[in-house]
Amino acid sequence: MTDDCAIALSGVTLALGNATFAFDCRLPAGAITAVTGPSGSGKTTFLNLVAGFERPDAGTVSIGGQDVTALHPAERPVSLVFQDNNLFAHLDIASNIGLGIDPSLRLSAQDRAAVSTALERVGLGGFEKRRPGTLSGGERQRAAFARALVRRRPVLLLDEPFAALDPDLRAAMSALLVELHRETGNTVLIVTHDPQEVRRSADHVLFLKQGRIAVNLPAERFLSGTGVAEADTFMRQI
Ligand SMILES: Nc1ncnc2c1ncn2[C@@H]1O[C@H](COP(=O)(O)OP(=O)(O)OP(=O)(O)O)[C@@H](O)[C@H]1O
Questions:
Q1: What are the coiled-coil residue ranges (predicted)?
Q2: Residues 7, 98: one domain?
């Protein structure tokens, strides 16, 4: 495990409408961190700050020791799977995933093989020529996950990536995430409402409350009780 991809937010503050956020934390490199907490607590905003879709009013965001606060999302070493999976309707699934490798879609035979392998791993083998509009919501989410996989960036950001899937498929996709994480050793942040997901996949847990960090602990310690009532109630929902 290297320290290259630790994510650090130092003195970060942000106001969006009536909501205010203040984040100060350091997240371990090469780990899966679950970002959780009640609806409206700031989970997506936290991910947006790391991805660069939001800029802090004050403070710095760094990834792997590099200050990325002023960098655009495309310049940051991250790949993303957000709730709206951002597939291009006019491109087939293979091209949508190929965009993760090369935005101009000049793909080598090896790249095309990587696309097909990623599709097979997410259970969409043979979907290469299909258009996004012909896929179910869950299949589109899995295609977006495949696109993030082929990018092979050191940091993977996932915002409720499996929320639309039924429980069995959700469990299978979490298992796939853990398996791929073991292979690549990348740093993963996954926003989830699902305590089972936290238990299944997280090495580390960040629990947010009203735009602040209420708990920042290794998963083992989080699961054995945090002393923060909301976090402990959340885990008892299983
Ligand atoms: N651009 C914005 N303008 C005004 N308010 C915003 C904006 N973005 C987020 N907020 C508010 O900030 C709060 C946190 O939003 P955020 O989406 O980060 O929460 P969340 O924890 O991801 O919620 P959920 O679990 O419901 O998706 C919410 O109250 C939201 O209404």
A1: none
A2: no
Query: How far, in Å, CA of 100 to CA of 91, rounded?
Result: 13
Q: What total number of domains does the chain contain?
A: 2
Tell me the sheet residues that pair with 63.
Answer: 7, 66
Q: Are 193 and 12 in contact (CB under 8 A)?
A: no
Q: 43 with 106, same domain?
A: no
How many Cα atoms occupy the beta-carbon half-sphere of 19 within 13 Å? Answer: 14
Choose which residue among 20, 41, 47, 207 to substitute to test ligand 1 binding: the one with the highest number of ligand atoms within 8 A of its C-beta: 41
Q: Is residue 82 part of a domain?
A: no
Atom of ligand 1 nearest to the CA of 45: 18
ipTM: 0.97
140 vs 65: CA distance, rounded Å: 34
**Residues 165, 235 within the same domain:** yes
pLDDT tens digits for range 161-212: 888 788 888 888 888 889 888 888 899 999 998 898 999 999 999 999 999 9
Closest CA to 146 of 87, 97, 215, 104: 97
Question: Where residue 26 sits, what CATH number does that domain have?
Answer: 3.40.50.300
Ligand 1 lining (C-beta closer than 6 Å): 16-17, 19, 37, 39-45
Q: Which atom of ligand 1 is nearest to the CA of 160?
A: 27
Question: Do the beta carbons of residue 131 and residue 24 sit within 8 Å?
Answer: no
Please provide residue 166's backbone torsions phi and psi, each rounded to the nearest 5 degrees: -75, 165
